[in-house]
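Researcher: I've been going back and forth with a colleague about how SMP-30/Gluconolactonase/LRE-like region domain-containing protein might be arranged in three dimensions. Neither of us has a model we trust, so I'd like an independent prediction. The organism is Paraglaciecola chathamensis, in case that matters for your notes. Sequence below.
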Amino acid sequence: MKILNKYTNLLRVMLTIVALSACSQTVLAQQQYSLQDLPAQFNSPASFSLDSDNNILFTSPNLHNQTLVEQGVITKAAAPTIGLIDNNNQVSVWYTFKQQDLEPNSGVVTPMGIAKGPDGNIYIADMQLWFGGESRLLRVNVIDGKAIDVDVVAKGFSFPNAVAWRGNDVFISDTVLATEKGISTTSGVYKLRLDELSAENPLQISKYQNKNNHDAHLFEIFESNGSLGFGANGLAVDGKGNLYTGIMEDGTIYKSTFNEDSSKLETTLFNKGLIASDGIQWDAPSNALYITDLFDNAVYRIDMNGQAKLLAKNGNTDGSKNMLDAPGEVIVRAGIAYVTNFDAAFGASTMVNTKPDAPFTISVVPIK
Ligand SMILES: [Ca+2]
Ligand SMILES: [Ca+2]
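Model: Here is an independent structure prediction for SMP-30/Gluconolactonase/LRE-like region domain-containing protein. You can compare it with whatever you and your colleague have in mind.
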């Protein structure tokens, strides 16, 4: 009996070792994907941020779930996900949003803009306007490069879109504060301090009423032509601390400069001529801004004098063969521009893309 026990125990130890190594192998062998063949859990790749290890993170709110189910391309809705592009351009799942992350009234989370904060955590705009919830700024708490969990740190936005940090201040574009179709859209950019952001007591932004009656955190207000109902969208901060805001329906970019105390000095027109500007990122080595034109299926570099140069443009595609497919944002890493093919189709006459479709892709464009 004793001998049997001994062998049973030995067997148990051996089985435990086998089980543990199987477990660690599962962790090590995390599924990886190519940029040109993403799984359906990345069916609307949107915005980019670099993490602390030079990986590229990207949000995918998966806004095409319903369309793709109707097309028979996928069988069930994919949860919103954050992907990671490693230094070998392999894509893996960094975080999948969970039940406890959903906005309680709408039951959804819509991760749009993403940016790394000065505290090393990842901040995400959760757009709820289309779904009946209260729009939020989320903080993904990061330890050793891994996403641990998610906290709500501010709420009360209308259509939060891009997120960009300037020192300890975070800027969040709000694409629709008020809009009258074909007449005008009012949009803006909020500015919050890191020390105002708290999981225990999320910062409450009061609803925009008019130009003279709004939350004190509203840093800038923009009026645009009302053609789409989408105003302030992409945001980026350059090496000198200037802030750039793209106004989607006007196809313009504005530049805001700052006083010593980080208050606003002035905001002026910086570039115009795009059809519908989307995400913006600034790249240090090339000292330039990179921006997509969601409607015109194009990617541009814009120098620090506001001069645009076309980097890539395609017609109506499905995104295969590295072609652009309604690009949402572009980020540069080591001389390569990565472009999310958001693949939205709004049915507007000025929009090149006509259909969200497989494959789900991120394009790469050398910038030299
Ligand atoms: Ca596609
Ligand atoms: Ca398409």
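Researcher: What would you highlight for our discussion?
Model: I'd start with this: The longest strand covers residues 146-157. After that, consider the following. Residues 6-11, 13-26 have pLDDT under 50 and may be disordered.
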